[in-house]
Amino acid sequence: MYQALYRKYRPKTFDDVVGQAHITRTLQNEVKTGKTAHAYLFTGSRGTGKTTCSKILAKAVNCPNAQDGNPCGECEICRGIDAGTIMDVMEIDAASNNGVDNIRQLREDAYFAPGQAKYRVYIIDETHMLSTGAFNALLKIMEEPPPHVLFILATTEVHKVPATILSRCQRFDFRRIGSEDIAGYLEKIAQNEGVELEHSAGLLIGKLADGGMRDAISLLDLCISYGGAVTAAVVAQAAGLAGNGHLLALSQAFADRNTASALEQIGQLHEKSMDMERLCSDLIAFYRDLMLLKTVEQPQRLIVALPEEMEEMKPLAQGLSLSQILYTLSVLEDVQSRMARTANRRTELEMAVVRVCNPAMDSSAEAVLTRLEELEVAVRRGVAAPAPTESSQADGEKPAPALPLAREPRRKKTPPPDIEPPLDLKTDPAPLAGSPGATPFLAWQEVLGRLLKTNPPLFAALQHSDAYEKDDLMLIDAKNELFFKLIRENEFAKDSLRDALMAQTGRRYRLGPYRAQEQPSVKAEEDPLDSLLTSAKNAGVAVEEK
């Protein structure tokens, strides 16, 4: 009979456990020195190795041939524990044996000496499911346990375990396993199974597993069943990842404030039997990805998506401000919480779409901030208020007359000396001849204020700096050479600065360095009296200096 891969490749020793070195190293040292505790508590998300480490620890403390804290895996005790035939090691499922009578029976059996092994080990899985009476019954024996008893409690919800139990256990927190670690382990399994696994596919499985090794191996098992090499496309198909084309189209309609198009798309998805609550959840996840694309330097580590899908999302993220993304997330989160309490889920989602496409109809703080930012950008561009949307015209409202926006007169300031022409900051060409015509950029401090929120390291490198404007070129006079290194080698730094300038001025600038050319030194004026004395002496006139 075929054995599932997650069972076939379950770790047998502490050295085989992936991603939990901070725990396995401690347990090995305790077994090796004979200083094991009488009770352990293993907590963490599913599939991170809690039950696996419990069984390895049970073998290690009972194995007569333990080596460096690891069980040998060959002796009768180790094989019996693996097969479940050693009655001294009991694994109890607290989800189905959570009553006080079950724990009372455990207490009565615990006082008997072990029959084959050195210790009687009780592994209580899903400990948080025990009833209050069961916890109280367990507490009594954990206070004064027999010397031959070892308790190992495993739970995914440690906050539900009473503090009286926690205080009597050594607690170990299992971390989520990184995608790179999962991909490396899956590649070893695929090699042993004679299957070709692409590294990108392994990384995608690791992201989908959300840090759980068991889920990752199960998904790999499913992908292998498809036959042939395991690629990212195969993983997406096996995991049921639907394309994000409909999410891109909906988000573009939101960005264009096209209410009619967004509602029509939702109607088409509803006709295809798309669950509205699932659609709302997918939109929340999609806008979360847009938020990460907007704020994180390497978002591919945090986003579960195919590379080509991520490339399609980048232009949309660049065209939206962070406040617009956060406002949309807030509206969608709000409607998702209401969907669970109503049968009219489609109507709830359509109401949310109208609010997203028309922030003027929303009185929340996020909507007000979004409208204020749009007005600021409009004022800087020197344009009137945005045209009314279709929904406002449909209500019979007449659009207010657009008022001309007066530009603030620029203060006169002495223009800077000749400057170097624009340079491509990706390279570092030799300085060319200077060219005049740049004027001081008066809103530079406001730009730095925006940059502080999106890229603090770049903000720090621009302290005590100035900027000069020449057509579509922004020349930056930075005292810190770190700025030129960041802007030359880091695309995120350059995009952050351009986005901050865009948000402040409504214009897209090219970037360049500014360095004033050295002015020729002015020779000190000669004293007129000294000049007169020199002339008199040259003419032969006797001059007496006193």
CATH superfamily membership of the largest domain: P-loop containing nucleotide triphosphate hydrolases
CATH architecture of the largest domain: 3-Layer(aba) Sandwich
General form: extended
Calculate the mean pLDDT score and round it. 80
Cα end-to-end separation:
121 Å
Largest sheet: 5 strands, parallel
Percent of residues in beta strands? 5-15%
What is the helix fraction of residues, given as a range? 40-55%
State the strand order across the main sheet: 2-3-4-1-5
The number of distinct β-strands equals: 9
Class computed from helices, strands and strand pairing: alpha/beta
Number of helices: 24
Which CATH class of the largest domain is shown? Alpha Beta
Report Rg: 35 Å
Tally of separate domains: 4
Would you give an account of this structure?
- The protein has 546 residues and is an alpha/beta fold.
- It has 4 domains: 5-173, P-loop containing nucleotide triphosphate hydrolases (Rossmann fold); 179-238, Orthogonal Bundle (Helicase, Ruva Protein, domain 3); 245-384, Zinc Finger, Delta Prime, domain 3, CATH 1.20.272; 439-513, DnaA, N-terminal domain (GMP Synthetase, Chain A, domain 3).
- The chain contains 24 helices and 9 strands.
- The strands form 2 sheets. A 5-stranded parallel β-sheet has the order 2-3-4-1-5, with helices on one face.
- The termini are far apart.
- Mean pLDDT is 80; it is low at 384-435 and 518-524.
